[in-house]
């Protein structure tokens, strides 16, 4: 089914969750006629009321209330974009826990009741770029989840990276000003490759660990569906016995963690700036529903100080050897949005949204966030933003908060205060579900300070770098070199080399050589040599190779082998991937034996060779058919498709005469080909290759899977 057809079908799709049912209240049932905003039927929406002598048009009249309404509404369509994370995409889904295993940590039913299905809405985003910027830039990705629980809304406002740039919320305006476009010329868009950002992080070494992550392949996710998600901050859980635990929340993608290589990401920014947004829509609409496992790391209160880092410092991970990750549930996204603005643009997340059984910690970044999000929503959406359809809870809301701009609710009765003689909406004791703070003992002096362990910034940056595979390290060195090459102030790129020399001597040396910095003579600090497997993204390759949801292009010209193409498409569909026929024109392409232009009877090519680029697909197959293979070999653009895909280490398959074209295109005579594969085997081998996709530069010849003409 085409994407357009799948989206149409969704209009009548089954309502699955409480939140979707709730949204139906505001979903417009389409009528056949046009009205103004107040329901008066409109006879002409094209011509402003004018003075006319019947043949010429005179001045337009202010009295035209229909034209004025249309124009005024248009003039006010925009709201302030998010100050960060302006560019995003969203989808609906549901969350379930597998058992009541988390009861030892919390009494929150959303985390402990396996009979429940909780509606969720997720918004993914980039951080730096404005609303119209490209999806595939190097950046952190936002991963914000709203749970519409029966006890109220709970938000995990996280990222695809487990740590953050700064330790204290008071530094947030500075880091954001530094990374955003520079004030004098509003450059650059969607990039951190500029003087101000690297100046700031050079002077703020607490960001060193985060820089390692963003400059690694994690900064270039292949898809929102192939990223981990992290709550980042330290939260707390409280169980029925009143015991408290510090926790970190994790999302692990079912499809594994995969990234672009830099060259692909750069090109897609221009070729298809909406790549991630479309990828999410395509996967959900074609039934490959994105899924994440949900896990928690928990530390009992009594062990808070047992670690050589502060567990409330958001620039540190909790290594899984020290604090194991327990998988307790899963989330599936199964519905695209109906309309972007009221859902994705108006959704408002707040770290302060928690439900009984879940609590905050003294993490100084979280404490500040708990103030900032509510505040920013007032500026974006007005004080009654909680009432917007996408934000309102699925359980009753009853209180004495009133009025304000754009209030929707109408309360009956004479009372809007508490206490009142009628005892309307009474506070609920904790034993009956009322929220109560954990009775934490606090003592101390007021001071602007950070804890002693917050002063150490390089141990975990080193741990991360040491844990990468060789090719991941090379990608990271190239990424920092790219960024610092875009900084033209020597003070900036020279000082950052000094920071890197605290992490790894070779890393610092190589970057300094690449960007014209001062090459260090000795390490600023010894490398502790420790590593841990869970930090490399290779660790998250799917256990079973899969091609699910991958985009596979079949390159043909007239004269292709029809049976092979049909076999390939069936095999691709069976693997829940999508196949795309790329031909000499969009329209019918004719197989061996058929007359070109004879009408139906071949296959419908989805795109012309110039209509797409290899970067937009995960794998490629060239079927047999002598004439088709010869025509492909004579076309510069099709040769480029294959060479570029090969350069990006993508899976490439060929059958029959297609093999000849492939060998010719990549011009690598030394490669040993497996010529005994049929259509099914070629396609299933893609799964193996795609799991290694992140190993890009080392895949080499393995990416070529070539089959015989069956
Ligand atoms: Fe933030 C948006 C994630 C620190 C202040 N942040 C925002 C979004 C995500 C994050 C995913 C987009 C939500 C959406 O899709 O609407 N932010 C993080 C993470 C952080 C973090 C993982 C570190 C642990 N943020 C942070 C701090 C502050 C903010 C320290 C302020 C003190 N963040 C905001 C904000 C935004 C925001 C200005 C902009 C738009 C919005 O909130 O709704 O309030």
UniProtKB/TrEMBL annotation:
The active site is at 85, 159. GO terms for molecular function: catalase activity; heme binding; metal ion binding. InterPro entries: Catalase, Catalase_AS, Catalase_clade2, Catalase_clade2_helical, Catalase_core, Catalase_haem_BS, Catalase_immune_responsive, Catalase_large_C. Heme binds at residue 373. The keyword Transport does not apply. Coiled coil: none annotated. Residues 35-426 form the Catalase core domain. Belongs to the catalase family. This is Catalase. The lineage of its organism: Eukaryota, Fungi, Dikarya, Basidiomycota, Agaricomycotina.
């Amino acid at each position: 089914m085409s994407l357009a057809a799948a989206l149409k079908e969704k209009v009548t799709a089954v309502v699955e969750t409480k939140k979707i049912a709730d949204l139906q209240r505001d979903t417009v049932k389409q009528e056949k006629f046009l009205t103004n905003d107040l329901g008066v039927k409109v006879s002409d929406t094209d011509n402003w009321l004018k003075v006319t002598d019947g043949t010429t048009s005179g001045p337009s009249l202010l009295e035209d209330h229909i034209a004025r309404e249309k124009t005024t509404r248009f003039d006010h369509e925009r709201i302030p974009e998010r100050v960060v994370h302006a560019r995003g995409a969203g989808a609906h889904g549901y969350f379930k826990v597998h058992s009541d295993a988390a009861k030892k940590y919390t009494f929150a039913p959303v985390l402990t009741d396996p009979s429940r299905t909780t509606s969720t809405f997720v918004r993914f985003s980039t951080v730096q770029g404005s609303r119209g910027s490209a999806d595939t830039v190097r950046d952190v990705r936002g991963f914000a989840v709203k749970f519409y629980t029966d006890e109220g809304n709970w938000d995990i406002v996280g990222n695809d990276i487990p740590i953050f740039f700064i330790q204290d919320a008071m530094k947030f305006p500075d880091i954001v000003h530094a990374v955003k476009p520079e004030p004098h010329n509003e450059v650059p868009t969607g990039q951190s490759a500029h003087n101000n950002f690297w100046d700031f992080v050079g002077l703020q070494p607490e960001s060193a660990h985060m820089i390692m992550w963003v400059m690694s392949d994690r900064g270039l996710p292949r898809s929102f569906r192939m990223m981990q998600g992290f709550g980042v901050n330290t939260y707390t859980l409280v169980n029925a016995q009143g015991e408290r635990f510090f926790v970190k929340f994790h999302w692990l993608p079912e499809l594994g963690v995969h990234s672009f290589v830099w060259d692909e990401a750069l090109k897609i920014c221009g070729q298809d700036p909406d790549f991630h947004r479309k990828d999410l829509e395509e996967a959900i609409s074609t039934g490959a529903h994105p899924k994440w496992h949900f896990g928690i790391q928990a530390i009992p209160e009594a062990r808070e100080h047992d670690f050589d880092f502060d567990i409330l410092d958001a620039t540190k991970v909790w290594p899984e050897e020290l604090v194991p990750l327990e998988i307790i549930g899963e989330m599936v996204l199964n519905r695209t949005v109906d309309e972007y603005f009221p859902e994705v643009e108006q959704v408002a997340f707040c770290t302060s949204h928690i439900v009984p059984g879940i609590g905050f910690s003294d993490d100084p970044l979280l404490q500040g966030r708990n103030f900032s999000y509510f505040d920013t929503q007032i500026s974006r959406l007005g004080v009654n933003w909680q009432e917007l359809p996408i934000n309102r809870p699925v359980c009753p809301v009853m209180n004495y908060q009133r009025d304000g701009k754009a209030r929707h609710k109408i309360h009956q009765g004479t009372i809007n205060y508490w206490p009142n003689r009628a005892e309307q909406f009474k506070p609920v004791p904790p034993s009956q579900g009322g929220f109560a703070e954990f009775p934490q003992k606090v003592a101390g002096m007021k001071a602007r300070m950070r804890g002693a362990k917050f002063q150490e910034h390089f141990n975990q940056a080193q741990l991360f770098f040491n844990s990468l595979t060789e090719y991941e390290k090379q990608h990271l060195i190239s990424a920092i070199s790219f960024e610092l090459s875009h900084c033209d102030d020597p003070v900036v790129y020279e000082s950052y080399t000094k920071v890197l020399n605290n992490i790894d001597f070779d890393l610092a040396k190589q970057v300094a050589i690449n960007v014209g910095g001062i090459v260090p003579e000795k390490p600023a600090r010894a490398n502790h040599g420790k590593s841990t497997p869970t930090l490399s993204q290779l660790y998250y390759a799917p256990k079973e190779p899969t091609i699910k949801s991958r985009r596979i292009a079949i390159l043909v010209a007239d004269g292709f082998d029809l049976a092979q193409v049909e076999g390939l498409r069936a095999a691709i569909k069976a693997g829940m991937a999508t196949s795309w026929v790329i031909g000499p024109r969009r329209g019918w392409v004719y197989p061996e034996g058929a007359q070109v232009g004879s009408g139906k009877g071949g296959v419908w090519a989805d795109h012309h060779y110039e209509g797409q680029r290899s970067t937009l697909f995960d794998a490629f197959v060239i079927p047999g058919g002598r004439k088709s293979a010869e025509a492909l070999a004579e076309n510069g653009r099709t040769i480029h498709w294959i060479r570029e895909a090969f350069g990006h280490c993508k899976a490439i398959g060929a059958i029959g005469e297609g093999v000849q074209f492939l060998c010719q295109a990549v011009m690598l005579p030394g490669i040993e080909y497996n010529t005994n594969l049929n259509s099914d085997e070629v396609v299933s081998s893609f799964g193996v290759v795609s799991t290694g996709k992140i190993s890009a530069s080392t895949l080499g010849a393995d990416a070529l899977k070539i089959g015989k003409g069956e």
